[in-house]
């Protein structure tokens, strides 16, 4: 099948308001003076689209967007980055969130879930047409993307998704977890990450599951074996963790779609995620292909004992 798109990103378009606060959690007070408050386009699907595009993959983004100022920010982002965008009207208005960012780069995201409604759908004909000319789909867990999963599966393409801070129980995430070939999830809310990762494989289609653990790196389950992906040192001061998980997914996808070994894909993800932590959340910068490959080459030359991404077995309940 000839394709014109490497990665079709579904969902996750929106606008964040970034607020840098003196500490997290933020103690109650009548008011705070903060260094900056800025509203910019960029939620999970936008970050992945920017990330894989910066790595040289032909990218197309499909989502529901409001006919409003915030939707204009999303449209401008894609136009300025040269990323194809197919938008469907979202009657409730463009999705929004407020992100509080502490001095150490940690963030607290407040997501407005009133923008989507039960009747919202990505038109099946649009999904089918884009899927027919795309190699791979990365599906955000934003509503109503789960309804598009059967169409993507019928098209015969591979699918990835990011469950973010799933607790391993909430049924909303299950269609994504069980229909994707490659699943990302954060360990943040998981009582037993290894158990959840293995259940995703047992109950769904995934053969590879990656659980990101922030500064502790990530865990990779593939072919039944669980290994640890050590973290990579950021190339500069850590200022903001916004988009780090999406950057990790973008780097991993870059390697995965190129047929690279899973551990190398993990190093790509760790490198991209570390880079993202050095970028203020008010910007939408992603690591370039040349920089990613150069950094990975440096790590590959390091002694095995010091090499991030080595096939290091992970303990139970990692």
UniProtKB/TrEMBL annotation:
GO terms for molecular function: kinase activity. Coiled coil: none annotated. SUPFAM superfamilies: Ribokinase-like. It comes from the Bacteria. InterPro entries: Carboh/pur_kinase_PfkB_CS (IPR002173), PfkB_dom (IPR011611), Ribokinase-like (IPR029056). Residues 300-318 have a biased composition (Low complexity). PROSITE patterns: PFKB_KINASES_2. Residues 5-284 form the Carbohydrate kinase PfkB domain. The keyword GTP-binding does not apply. Residues 299-318 are annotated as: Disordered. Transmembrane segments: none annotated. Keywords: Kinase, Transferase. PANTHER family: RIBOKINASE, SUGAR KINASE. This is Sugar kinase.
């Amino acid at each position: 099948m000839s394709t014109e798109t490497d990665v079709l990103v579904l969902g996750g378009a929106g606008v964040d308001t970034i607020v840098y606060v003196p500490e997290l959690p933020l103690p109650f007070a009548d008011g705070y003076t903060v260094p900056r408050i800025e509203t910019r386009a960029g939620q999970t699907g936008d970050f992945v689209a920017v990330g894989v595009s910066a790595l040289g993959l032909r990218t197309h983004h499909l989502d529901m967007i409001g006919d409003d100022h915030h939707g204009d920010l999303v449209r401008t982002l894609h136009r300025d980055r040269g990323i194809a965008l197919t938008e469907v009207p979202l009657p409730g208005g463009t999705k929004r969130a407020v992100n509080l960012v502490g001095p150490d780069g940690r963030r607290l995201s407040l997501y407005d879930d009133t923008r989507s409604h039960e009747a919202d759908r990505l038109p099946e004909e649009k999904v089918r047409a884009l899927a027919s000319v795309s190699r791979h789909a990365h599906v955000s867990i934003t509503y109503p993307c789960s309804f598009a999963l059967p169409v993507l599966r019928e098209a015969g393409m591979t699918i990835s998704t990011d469950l973010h801070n799933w607790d391993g129980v909430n049924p909303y995430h299950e269609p994504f977890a069980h229909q994707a070939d490659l699943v990302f999830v954060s360990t943040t809310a998981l009582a037993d990450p290894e158990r959840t990762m293995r259940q995703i494989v047992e109950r769904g289609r995934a053969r590879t599951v990656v659980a990101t653990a922030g500064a502790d790196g990530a865990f990779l389950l593939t072919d039944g074996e669980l290994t640890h992906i050590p973290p990579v040192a950021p190339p500069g001061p850590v200022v903001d963790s916004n988009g780090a998980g999406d950057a990790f997914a973008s780097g991993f996808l870059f390697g995965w779609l190129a047929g690279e070994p899973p551990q190398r894909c993990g190093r790509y993800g760790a490198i991209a995620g570390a880079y993202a932590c050095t970028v203020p959340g008010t910007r939408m910068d992603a690591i370039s292909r040349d920089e990613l490959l150069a950094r990975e080459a440096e790590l590959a030359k390091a002694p095995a004992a010091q090499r991030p991404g080595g096939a290091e077995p992970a303990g139970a309940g990692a």
